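== Fold encoding ==
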Amino acid sequence: MGAAAVADAAGHRPHDLLWVDDASALIPVDVFPEWAMTPWLSVAPVVVRRAGVLRGDRIPVGLRGAMRSERCAAHVAANRVTRSVSPEDIARRVSNRAQVRASTLPCLCTLARIAPALDGMSLGWGVTGGVGFTLASGFDVLRPDSDLDLLVRAPRRGDIDALHAVAALVVDAASGIDVQVETPCGAFALKEWLRTGGPVLLKTTDGPVFCDDPWHPDALDIARATAGAGA
């Protein structure tokens, strides 16, 4: 699979939230757990997963419940999706959300504080995780210890200086912020990239690969070949 294959056939990307026309459209990878009952699945969005080769028009998705431990993998046919919200869509509405401005939860207070600065940077950014799910769906799954999960899109290796600016903002803001950086080859943790100076564990459609250059398809192919040889 090509390194740029980070969207499914319907154009949805990892971390996008999807609503489906009926709970029956969701096909579990294994079996649905007890919490994943039809009333919840009929109203709550699912999140696009980063997965391998797709079968037909099926989109790999993840289901989440109200509790942190409630997660389930599934697929859904693209023609059963009725609505899609990207992390960037959620970020664009942060400044106008009374829920964010009035909240005393650390994750939402931090988001309200750093969103204007992120808006002023050159890289696209979005909100994922529990905060993104809550803001997009209206179902509050947040707790006082909830992290703030963010996504930053860095399509070019020349975006490194901008990533350092994001890192400085995040470090100054608070702990409990997890930033995933999305490149054409996959996604990596900003904290890990800062710590190693380059080599990272890159999440790809074929699984995680330790890669020296997360922007370069050739480096990714070499990493996959090396991992395969050592298996």
